[in-house]
């Protein structure tokens, strides 16, 4: 779990990454998300839904 945490946050600490960039980045965490659901459209839709719910 620590490996997943460090892989993602170390790469994105200096800039914001879009969901598409994150999923295309090849990190362990991105691969895990795509293994759970391979359809990138699903993750894009869910992130938009979540952002709408918190704003």
From TrEMBL:
Entry protein name: Uncharacterized protein
Taxonomic source organism: Pseudomonas fluorescens
């Amino acid at each position: 779990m620590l490996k997943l945490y460090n892989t993602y946050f170390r790469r994105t600490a200096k800039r914001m990454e879009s969901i598409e960039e994150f999923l295309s980045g090849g990190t362990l965490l991105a691969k895990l998300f795509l293994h759970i659901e391979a359809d990138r459209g699903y993750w894009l839709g869910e992130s938009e839904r979540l952002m709408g719910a918190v704003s």
